[in-house]
Amino acid sequence: MKPIARQLFKTFLFSVIISIVVSCAYYAMQNKGLDQDLKSILPSLSESVAFLNIIIFVMSLPTLFLANPAYYNNLSVRLVLYYAGSIVFLITAFRLEQLSPQNKALYFITAATFIVVHSVFYYLMTKKRSLKR
Length: 133
Hints:
Order of helices and strands: HHHHH
Number of strands: 0
Radius of gyration: 17 Å
Helix content: over 70%
Number of helices: 5
């Protein structure tokens, strides 16, 4: 269980860092030519992205059940446990009607980054386990 927990924590850390960078780039592209400075929005943007990543991290905690070999060896259960939380977050974010388009974009960037980073670690995990056999 420790390797999976460590991997999930690394996913969270890398996702926060990459999400902040991508969100800042998105903000800069959206407000190009305006007098709004990125320095003024960076603290609140970073805080928002970190909070969203915490939510996705908590929703991805069922990944820890993969420490059980019976769950890990069943591919469909493994995929559901591994990706369900982040996919449900993404779907829920798009279904919320009270979010502005800019907020939906921020939610999408954060969720997509988490899923991509999570997928990289999934690939590394399955590759490592297949080499042990």
